[in-house]
Amino acid sequence: MTVFGKSTGSASIAFHMCSDVPLFNRAVLMSGTLATGPPLELNYKEAEYRALPRYCGIDEDDPERLNKLREVPVEKVVAAARGLGICRTQHRVIE
Description:
two-stranded antiparallel sheet; alpha+beta; two-stranded parallel sheet
C-alpha cells in the first residue's frame, strides 16, 4: 500500500514513517515534513544560513561559499541541521 499526504497530512505520514509499526510500504509526501515549522522572520533564517558556512569551516563572505558548501560531506550538513553547530533558541542562532 502507498499512502499520500499533503501539508499536515504529509507531516503526519512522516511521523508514522519513524514508527516501528509498519502501516504502509511507500509514502508520497507533499509539502509537509518533520522539519516543517512555523515561519520565522527572514533575519532569523539569514542568521542560520550565515552560521552554516562558519560551522563547515568556510568564510561566510567567500564568493565561492556555495560551491564549497556543495563539497561538504552530507553528515556534517545533517549535524549542523540537528543543532550541533547551529541551534535555534527563542528564535536566535547560537554557535
